[in-house]
Design brief:
Elements lengths: L1 E4 L5 H11 L6 H6 L5 E8 L2 E11 L2 E9 L8 H15 L4 E7 L3 H9 L3 E12 L2 E11 L7
Parallel strand pairs: 4-5
Antiparallel strand pairs: 1-2, 2-3, 3-4, 5-7, 6-7
């Protein structure tokens, strides 16, 4: 297992994971823009392949988890928590005080993981995401870093 910066050099592999794992993927141009400052991104290498990543955006001391993805072959094995823990460590290194994210209301495994590491529900935005059968809500969650110890 290796965690390395996800850069333009890894664009095709990262975007392949993004489009295969996200229900409403970004365009390749948007994904590309998220690999340069003020964004930061890291990739998870397993079996010598990019199997997951996260993308953060920092504005002053607030950091947003823009995207996190893991190939289906590695889901449910603890790799998502490793990615999330590394993201939170990067937020601390960058002197972040708050971490924000939004998650589909139906994504119960992700919500459980976020709650387990200390994220709190702040707001529910109704009819936020389009789905094949209509729309679903987004949950806005926040983790306060100041005054919290590292894992």
């Amino acid at each position: 297992m290796t965690l390395l910066p996800l850069t333009i050099d890894h664009l095709d592999q990262g975007y392949k994971v993004h489009t295969s794992e996200q229900p409403s993927p970004w365009s390749k141009n948007v994904f590309t823009d998220c690999l340069i400052s003020p964004y930061f991104a890291y990739q998870l290498i397993l079996d010598e392949q990019l199997q997951g990543y996260y993308i953060g955006l920092q504005v002053l001391d607030e950091i947003t988890l823009m995207d996190i993805a893991l190939t289906s072959a590695y889901q449910g094995q603890g790799w998502g928590k490793i990615l999330l823990d590394d993201f939170i460590d990067q937020c601390r290194l960058r002197k972040g005080s708050e971490v924000w994210l939004e998650v589909r209301e139906s994504n119960i495994p992700a919500i459980s993981l976020y709650t387990a590491v200390g994220f709190e529900l702040i707001e529910k935005r109704k009819a936020y995401y389009e789905t094949a059968s209509g729309v679903e809500a987004a949950l806005i969650m926040k983790l306060t870093l100041r005054g919290r110890r590292s894992k």
